[in-house]
Specification:
The chain has seven helices and five strands. The protein is mainly α and 125 residues long.
Amino acid sequence: MIFDTDVLIWIQRGNVKAARLVEKAEIRCISVQTYMELLQDAENKKQHDCVTAFLKEFGFRTLPLTENIGHRAAIYVEEYSLSHGLRAGDAIVAATAMEHNETLCTGNAKHFKPVKELKLKILKP
């Protein structure tokens, strides 16, 4: 399963439901987009280190941005940015899930619903 940034932020805020969902997952992945978003939200080195330690402790695999993912994300932006407001970061996350044939776990269903072929697991914190 690929986890969106918001799910990991919910865990940082102490949301038990989000934490259980991650604990139960056999495969824990994030896109490089999510990795960068988590790091850029860190306010200092200590928070930065906490993020990287959390990802390592729970065995998250960071999936790289490949040429195919970039191409697919660009198509999603072309198709859905005007009609549904899909942003580049979300397009990269969706494309990563699609390229790896994984379910995307997110609390932001609205952001990803336009991508019809995307398998979603919606977290309702």
